[in-house]
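Consider a protein example.
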Amino acid sequence: MAHLITLFGGPDSFVRRLDYLHDNNITYIGNEPAFLTVFQYHYAGRPGKSAARAHSYIPAFFAPTPDGLPGNDDSGAMGSFLAFAMMGLFPNPGQDVYLIIPPFFESVSVTSPLTNRTSTVRNIGFDPSYQDIYIQNATLNGVPYTKNWIDHSFFTEGKELVLTLGRNESSWGTMDADIPPSLSTGNSTSSTAVKRRGKVTGRGAVPLDLGRSLPWGSM
């Protein structure tokens, strides 16, 4: 992702292209390849844009009716997108990464079948009218947390993520150290390595262990 963002001219240009993709109906949320594009703003340091984009599609394209899905559920794909988005933790397949937005509920809890531990995401200042959808600050197990993503251990270790919400985008999750890891930077959380040197440097490497236990089972 870091290299892709660089090819597109940097984070600001990448965000504009993502906006154009969605705002001009070039992509369609009823088609599975569109799912991650809702949350790719995280990789450009704009997690608030991901939250706003998720709310632009939910509930507009989803409803609890027989025809309430915008496309073929395809063994649960549409329902999974909806569930993860509304939980506020969207997984990027192939990465030990869940992208954080505020849940659509005051709190969400998940019990791991592997460890029997319960993890919780809780909104402070939850607004059921969904005007206050931007994270202002966060704590993970009571410690200030600025990354806009978490890994699988959140579920298996039963952690608590508390999000304070507001009506406007904030600086939370926007710094270079806060964005998810990228293969093109040696799984670093930084995209500046690519922008400065034009090659992989591996600064701040975050190892990706595909053998780790997922909250629903093992890979």
Remarks:
- Helices lie at 2-7, 11-23, 47-57, 77-87, 153-156, 192-197.
